[in-house]
Specification:
This protein is an alpha/beta fold. It contains twelve helices and 18 strands.
Length: about 450
């Protein structure tokens, strides 16, 4: 809104009571996005009224066609400050879906103050928040990002309640750069690649976005497997001190992600459908990158190496207290299994599906002695649940011998180590009926075979 320069304020306008002027200012602010800034430049008296009246700042109108993202971020932050402690009405005029999250990011940590939300442009949406117990919370907790190039498909709601949590969903062509975002207080991030046209997300974009989520507790990422050349330099390490659960599914950037995060509280790691016959264009020369000395068979040697090296880097960096490791169509080299078994001292639940793991790997679960010592030890001393599904390279004799030796020892040492109380051995081709009977005699009700 532009005001024409005129004579100094005098006469009747000077006699208007402040209450009436404030009502006029509010009307202007609702109809013109930057009206408060214009009004406060008219005179010292008006400036004092505008700055000291939170009601004038209650309407936050952000327009991606009128201003840059950095300007809109500064605008949102000023309106938040000046409107305290009143609720705010958020209005978004946006033509570029990729800008929805950057434009709203300064406001998301204050969603408890939102009275209403209106979005116009590429998407139209209107919701009332104050008084709706299903859509109010201290702050936005859950964020879903769908990476796709079809914005004319099934419509979606940007804000909704999911299991009592305030959730936001955005569909983007590319993940917003961290420089465009105010820090996000989300605790649960679900990121999916949903494009069928070969749209590819760069690992640096994932890492960069994670840096804007310092309070993240759960991270889920499902993508498409494709080969990407390695970065010329390592990515900056992102500190995620509250992250306790990671799900990575159907991606080929496992190494890049796990090697670039610091997660001292990580307790649950789920790796699914990471195996692929693709030969990844990786040219790393880190400790452990050499060929596997065991020379065990693998249908996915390149991704086995990438997953193993990512885990090695993560464990070496912060030694997370992982308690659950679930590997579904995801594999490691033999020496990587040995590496993590030697270091995951808090692991309680290990499940692996469709692995090429060898008899050597299952043998690592047997008690062993360190050269020069006579006391028996076991790797994974807190292991209580073991699941082997479709592990067709394992021989029945190796499984029976390893589990027998372990269970006999751990059952007799309850004060030193945990024993297996839940074992599943299902659909492993080389484990026959006789092996099942031997395991049943050993484990009794602790064993599940189907």
């Amino acid at each position: 809104m532009k005001l024409k320069r005129g004579p100094p304020l005098s006469g009747w306008i000077m006699s208007l009571p402040p209450e009436l002027l404030i009502e006029i200012f509010i009307w202007c602010a609702v109809n013109h996005s930057l009206a408060p800034l214009t009004l406060q430049r008219v005179s010292k008296w008006w400036r004092a009224l505008v700055v000291s009246s939170p009601r004038v700042w209650q309407h936050v109108l952000l327009d991606d066609q009128a201003h840059t993202t950095s300007f809109l971020r500064a605008q949102a932050e000023l309106w938040l400050q000046r409107s305290m402690p009143l609720p705010i009405d958020v209005e978004l005029n946006v033509q570029t879906p990729d800008l929805i999250l950057p434009m709203l990011s300064p406001l998301l940590s204050h969603v408890q103050r939102w009275r209403s939300f209106v979005m116009q442009g590429q998407l139209d949406e209107k919701i009332a928040l104050i008084g709706d117990s299903n859509l109010t919370n201290d702050f936005l907790t859950d964020l879903r990002i769908s990476i796709q190039d079809d914005f004319n498909g099934k419509p979606h709601q940007t804000f909704f309640s999911q299991s009592g949590k305030f959730t936001m969903e955005v569909h983007v062509l590319r993940i917003p750069h961290s420089n465009l975002l105010a820090p996000l207080r989300i605790t649960n991030l679900r990121l999916t690649e949903d494009s069928f046209s070969g749209l590819q997300t760069e690992p640096k974009d994932i890492i960069g976005f994670l840096s804007a989520c310092p309070e993240l507790q759960i991270f889920y990422f499902k993508g498409w497997p494709y080969d990407k050349p390695p970065p010329p330099d390592p990515f900056p390490v992102v500190s995620l001190p509250q992250l306790h659960t990671i799900y990575l599914k159907n991606i080929c950037m496992t190494r890049a992600i796990l090697s670039s995060i610091d997660t001292p509280r990580l307790a649950n790691l789920y790796l699914a459908h990471l195996n692929t016959e693709l030969v990844l264009g990786e040219d790393y020369h880190e400790d452990g990158d050499s060929d596997d000395e065991a020379n065990d068979f693998s249908q996915s040697p390149s991704t086995d190496r990438a997953t193993g090296m990512g885990l090695r880097t993560l464990i070496n960096r912060c030694n997370p207290p992982i308690q659950v490791l679930d590997m579904d169509f995801s594999d490691l080299r033999t020496k990587d299994f040995r590496f993590i078994f030697d270091r995951l001292h808090f692991l309680q639940d290990f499940l692996i599906v469709a692995s090429d793991m060898s008899d050597t790997v299952i043998g690592y679960l047997r008690p062993f002695t360190i050269p020069g010592e006579q006391t028996l030890q076991v790797r994974l001393p807190h292991l209580q649940s073991l699941g082997l599904y479709n592990c067709n390279r394992l021989s029945g004799d190796a499984v029976v011998e390893a589990l027998s030796a372990r269970v006999i020892y751990t059952d007799q040492q309850p004060r030193l180590v945990e024993t297996l109380n839940n074992v599943a051995v299902v659909a492993c081709d080389r484990i026959d009926y006789e092996h099942d009977k031997r395991l049943a005699r050993l484990l009794g009700k602790r064993l599940r075979l189907s």
